[in-house]
Amino acid sequence: MSKYQYIAPCHFGLESVLKQELKGIGLWIESTEDGRVYFSGDESALARANIFLRTAERVLLMVGTFEARSFDELFEGVKRLPWEEYVPKDGCVLVKKAASVRSKLFSPSDIQSIVKKAIVDRLMAKYGFSGRLPESGADFPLRVFINKDRVTIGLDTTGESLHKRGYRKKQGEAPIAENLAAALILLSKWTPDKTLIDPFCGSGTIPIEAALIAKNMAPGRNRDFAAADWGHIIKKRIWYAAYDEAESQIIKNVDLDIRGYDIDGTLIRVAQENADMAEVEDLIHLERRPVSELGRMEESDLQGTIITNPPYGERMTGQREIERAYMELGDGMERLGGFDSFVITGFPDAERFIGRRADKNRKIYNGMIKTYFLKFGGRA
Ligand SMILES: C[S@@+](CC[C@H](N)C(=O)[O-])C[C@H]1O[C@@H](n2cnc3c(N)ncnc32)[C@H](O)[C@@H]1O
């Protein structure tokens, strides 16, 4: 079996969780950079990483890496790579994205077109075409990133980003990405024997991801990936084996106490539909309830974990309401003294309005938005 190098991009700040996940599925980690973990494995690693990883954004198959400070060097470097080993005669190469930091070459559109030209040149010569490539077969999307003049090119084996599990058909105004929600749950060290509450659950992402983790349901078990049609790299039977492995690992009977509340009744209905799609509807209690009610009822006797993503954008609610929501969250956390609380937010004054300093504060980049993941320890 051939051994490949892979790259798994993730949210900045979540590399350590992704590494844990890769180790957990038995894959070999090579190195880590900001927002990326490199690992290696055979073809089955490609299928298993796509199907099992909860916190990665996608899985790239590394084609090569080299230095380039000019477009000529970029062209020659790309042309030297053995594209015919990856792309068949009728393959359609799509340079989906180019990103560059601290490098001489920086224009994404120019980088994309030079890379495409160099690959086409190489494939035309190798396959003996003149004129143009047929490009009538499977898509081969690829991504280029340049860091300090070092170019890395990877084939995107995933296609539609891994955070798209397939269950979230509808969502609210500011849903949290599914892979970020999963990472927060893993970082919180919540275990399924404890109650989990999300008092601002919106379309239900955090409760649904928690139920999937508790049931050991692989996030990619119901979806397809770009590399499904790359028969010369990975055989169908390897995909089938990975999907079968995912099914066989599902824990049948779990007793869970996962609760999602939101002030918006329409969103609670959306969360219910999403939970249904994710096949965890019977494991989550969803209810319309404002955060001012948090911990007022039987919940105050419980031990557990709050993981939540309160509103913070001006777009959603006015500044006053946001401040009030954080104050009410703080009061609820006080009533739920036995709970550890984890809050992801871009609101810089979150601690002030919650009324407590966080015990831990981790910076996580949600795209370009800087967010804080705050931990408030409960009473032991
Ligand atoms: C950032 S969104 C949460 C998104 C959610 N994590 C998801 O994936 O869809 C914040 C949510 O807080 C809810 N919200 C705002 N004020 C509230 C309040 N006082 N009590 C409870 N929920 C509130 C909004 O309806 C919204 O759904």
Structure, explained:
- α2 packs across α7 (236-248), α3 (71-80) packs parallel to α4 (108-127) and α5 (178-188) crosses α6.
- The protein has 2 domains: 4-156, 2-Layer Sandwich (VC0802-like), CATH 3.30.2130.30; 178-217 and 252-376, Vaccinia Virus protein VP39 (Rossmann fold), CATH 3.40.50.150.
- The protein has helices spanning 15-24, 43-52, 71-80, 108-127, 178-188, 205-214, 236-248, 265-277, 319-335, 350-354; strands at residues 4-9, 28-33, 36-41, 60-67, 92-101, 139-147, 150-156, 195-198, 258-262, 284-288, 304-308, 339-345, 360-366, 369-376.
- The mean pLDDT is 94.
- β2 and β3 (36-41) form a beta hairpin.
- A 7-stranded mixed sheet has the order 2-3-1-4-7-6-5. It has a 7-stranded mixed sheet with strand order 10-9-8-11-12-14-13, covered by helices on one side.
- The longest helix has 20 residues, at 108-127.
- It has 10 helices and 14 strands.
- 31% of the residues lie in helices and 24% in strands.
- With 380 residues, it is α/β, with parallel strands linked by helices.
- The chain is elongated.
- S-adenosylmethionine (SAM) binds next to α6.
Task: Fill in the keyword field for this structure.
380 residues; alpha/beta; VC0802-like; Rossmann fold; 2 domains; 7-stranded mixed beta sheet; 14 strands; binds S-adenosylmethionine
